[in-house]
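sanity check this chain:
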Amino acid sequence: MQNYLVRGSALEGIRATIDSLGGDGESVLRKAGLMVAEHDPQSWISYHRFLLLLEESVRATQCPHFGLKLSYQQGINILGPVGFVIRQAPDLRSALRQLTIHFAHHNQGADVSIRVENGIALWGFSCKLEGEAPVRQQLDLVTGIGVNLIRLLYKPEWSPKAVYFPHSVPDNIHPYRELFRCPINFDADQLLMTFDAAILDIPLSNANPQLHKLLDQHLNEMRLLYPDDYCGQVRHLINQALTTGDCSIERVASHLAVGKRTLQRQLRSHNTRYQDLLEEVRFTIAKRYLRESNGSLTALADMLCYSDLSTFSTAFRHYHGVSPRNWRKHASTGLSSPA
């Protein structure tokens, strides 16, 4: 099964929702191995593990519509930088388009789409793990979040024309009618929410075109730096791990919910090794630091989880052919620096 990542912010409200429904949120999170990630919304966790957590939450609460309940607790802030871009968009069309383009910055294991047919907008969501992992709760959750997002951006009393779920009819349909306030259809071919396309071009009150452009450029740069592929995901996790002082392969493998040997085998299938990706991330950070900061090399070595300055300098020289001190001199004088 392909591993995908989702930001730790996807856990927002899960403990409170489980507790409010009579379950033990702490026990469920501990069992899933997500106690630490719950308090670090910027971290990345296994998307498959997150889906299993939603299923375990259903069992712990005996609430078959747990995903819907959780959607009340998750607003635009869980999207992190993507949410900031959306809030600054000039209109709803631009906001939803930004969501489709940059959704991988929040969840690499799913896609969001928006299209218009005969004056009707069709908003869709698809999970890349569909058929390999339980997605019913995720579908309910993301549809609830989508409706609440449009109500936030457009107006609170808004409702879609219809919602189509690919899962079977639940025993209790009332929670769905209460949230969506529109016709609900089940056993559909795919998850879709439809609404009048005319609202797409209505200006948004919080629009800031200049800030929107800057944030959009930043996310585009991030997408190039960390592409949505397996090695890109591992680079994401290495970059995250460096900030904790533990960039071991064991730590990164645990976030992907696999063992060390499995991660090594998967990387070999992509013609690379963990150490190669680790050094790549380290030296990308090192070059930016050397070019833009006058900070000490000792601090940089510590930031990159080297045992000491000498070890960092030796590794940098081996990788770039010059010492970090000389690389910085080249960069500061505007001379062409080694790659």
User: Anything to note?
Assistant: Residues 274-292 form the longest helix (19 residues). The chain is about 55% helix and 10% strand. The chain has a mean pLDDT of 88.
